[in-house]
Amino acid sequence: MAINYPNGKKFSPPKDQPVQKKKKDVSFSNRGKTLEDELNETNSFYLQRGLAVIHKKPVPVQIVRVEYPSRSAAVIREAYFQAPSTTDYNGLWQGRYIDFEAKETEIRTSFPLKNIHEHQVHHMADIIRHGGLAFLIIRFSSLDRYFVLPFETLETYWNRMIAGGRKSMTLAEVEEASIEVKPGAFPRIDYLSVLHQLMT
After folding, report:
1. Whose CA is closest to 137, among 104, 114, 159?
2. Is 17 part of any domain?
3. Digit-coded pLDDT (tens) for 79-99
């Protein structure tokens, strides 16, 4: 299936370099699951127990061409991203609107700010302005560490980058400015347990 960007440009991998398959972390601690998988399971846990209603936002895609090789099957051959997506998750918790982005990095010593897009920063700033709670959940996959980073802190380091400063947050900066969430079993990433600290 060909997915094109809003400007119509098609993605094609470089022909001179072989495409390398990304190795999944299949350690016992997370059994190869991505941060998105873990958050989806966590959010299902919250919903089933009446703790919060939080869902992953669908990516806005416009389907252009579909083929029907048989009556019971349809194959999407061409689609376009309609607009840049905002953040990954949103919902309600204790009467408060929450909105957050989930990012993971294999880098052990820093979190690259290029993983965040400018329109996402503006979106989260709007959420805060209207009384919502916006934050980032960062997973350092090689360390199996999870952090909840308040938007206000992200904005500080984002502005530092825009002013010509460092283009990443060091692990020490993340540790100092975030709340670490220890992975568990049920739920896997209990980020709701630390949200009260973001509101103080």
Report:
1. 104
2. no
3. 766 656 788 899 999 999 999
